[in-house]
Amino acid sequence: MGGTASAPLVVLEGIAKGFGEGEARVQALSDITLSVEAGTVVGLRGPSGSGKSTLLNLIACILEPDAGRLALAGETVWEGGRYRRRDLRALRREKIGFIFQFHNLLPFLDATDNVALAMTLAGTGLAEARRRARDLLDYLEVGRRAAAMPAKLSGGEAQRVAIARALANRPRIILADEPTAALDSERARVVMDLLRQVAREQRAAILVVTHDEKIFDRFDRLVSLRDGRIESELVPAKAA
Amino acid sequence: MNLALRDIRHNLGRFLLTCLGLGLLLGVALAMVGIYRGVVEDALSLPRALGADLWVVEEGTRGPFAESSRIPGDVREAVARLPGVREAGAVTFQTAEVARPGGGVLRLQLVAYEPDRPGGPPVLTAGRGIARGRFEMVADRRAGLPVGATLEMGGQRFRVVGLTEGAVSSGGDPLAWITLRDGQELQFRLAPPAARRQLAAGGGTAGTDTVNAVIARVSPNQRVEAVAEEVRRWKHLSALTAAEQEAVLTQSVVARARVQLGMFTVVLLIASAVVVALIVYTLTLDKLREIATLKLIGARDRTIVGLVVQQAMALGIVGLAGGASLLFSVKDFFPRRVALGPEEVTGFALLVAAICLVASLLGVRLALRVEPAQALGG
Ligand SMILES: Nc1ncnc2c1ncn2[C@@H]1O[C@H](COP(=O)(O)OP(=O)(O)OP(=O)(O)O)[C@@H](O)[C@H]1O
Ligand SMILES: [Mg+2]
Q1: CA–centroid distance, residue B264 to ligand 1 (Å)
Q2: What ipTM score was computed for the predicted complex, to two decimals?
């Protein structure tokens, strides 16, 4: 695994990102400095439009920053106006699990294969990938929907399949954009506990965007964004 | 996991409907190829059926198919005596429209030859060849006449004694062989009422032993061209080798039809390419979000290119299979021969594959330009 044991898996230094030109310019993020160590789950909150999704997309190398430095798993990925890493897709495939705000399952694959695909893309054999996909779905309590097409899944089921896909390759970095929005609070807690467990067992760094105050106690740190800046950072009081 | 096939299965109805449309287009294009080949094969069918190495015709003509040719019948003996000539036979050709026994009109290309000499029918598929007897006929199966049928021509009843398969004129009319004597009477003599009048007026039958061509078979160890040179030195005569005769037929007799059909085929293939390109492009447009998602979860470009290209290929293969099977089930009802051998079909399939490949480039370009961020919008 990249980096030394203590080095943070996600490092952002002075990251900025704007959209559009001239009058229509929106400064979505300004001077973001943040790091996430292995084994921690960080919550990102803030009002709508405060830049939470933009921040995750920058870390996933889906959006390119305007300034600053981004390092993932000990490797400087973006700095000085360009990507230092060439194959961003291999990076995503191997190091990053992404849970989207909108689940983004492939409509033509059933639940199992949506999860298995992520593994086959990373080189796992199909049979092995399917077996592990079913295990993951069982684990997320959607095992009985394993053969269902995404269109037939409820919002919460689809979200859990998407979570299974994000976990499929045991990534070191997991980025989740409102993963519990479609879930009731009971399931939301289950998902959060699962993510905490993954963080602990896989020594992963996890960033979760959420509005849901009921799960704030599940985070190791809670970062608040406002108008594209980090407003505050606190360590929530742990529930039992 | 084959994403292309999985996506097709997911939208199977739409895919099959698209294939059906494309299949019809490809079927028509393939039919054009077949008709084109058919026109050429039909044109060559007659000279090949006769199996001549050398055609002796009237001087200054490229007869007897491209231009009319008349030479005296006794040229046959002179040709037969040439060194290197194995056998020679005099032939006449004419088209005839006769009343079909069951009703309707039947167009025949008559070939009159001397039995036991070159010019007769090739392999018979039914019945027997013409004996020395008169008013007998060997017809091609295309004429739709069974062995034993009778036909009225020039006031005489001809009886069908044998059948051939696939022997037609360049116009697609079935061939029918009769004896030279019958042929000459039909062609060069006056119709019976006029002949009777002429006889009554005291005239003899008109100068008679005229034929359209003399065909010769040359011994294997003899150059046909050398024999042709020999004949060309004679007065009033001209000679064409088999190759020259075939060239005349394909290059002048059916040239217009060939060019016309060739152009149609090319236009249809271009249309198919445009259609495939558009279909693949819209299929890709419909999948932009999925493609972006694939890039998000780290799919390589080759996975994405594979998705687009394999779907284009599947479209072409299924479309072609559908179009071809449709064509093969109806082609025998076409008025002209649709000549499609394994060679034509394989060639066409390769062409369709190439077209699909090229046509999918537009879709591939689109797919490769998709930004992973496009998967995120709500
Ligand atoms: N692709 C884009 N083009 C232009 N502006 C954008 C784009 N993406 C985000 N923005 C703008 O950047 C700002 C931050 O957006 P972002 O989606 O990160 O907010 P968010 O905190 O995730 O909001 P929400 O809670 O509603 O999901 C907003 O003002 C948004 O309009
Ligand atoms: Mg958002």
Answers
A1: 55
A2: 0.86
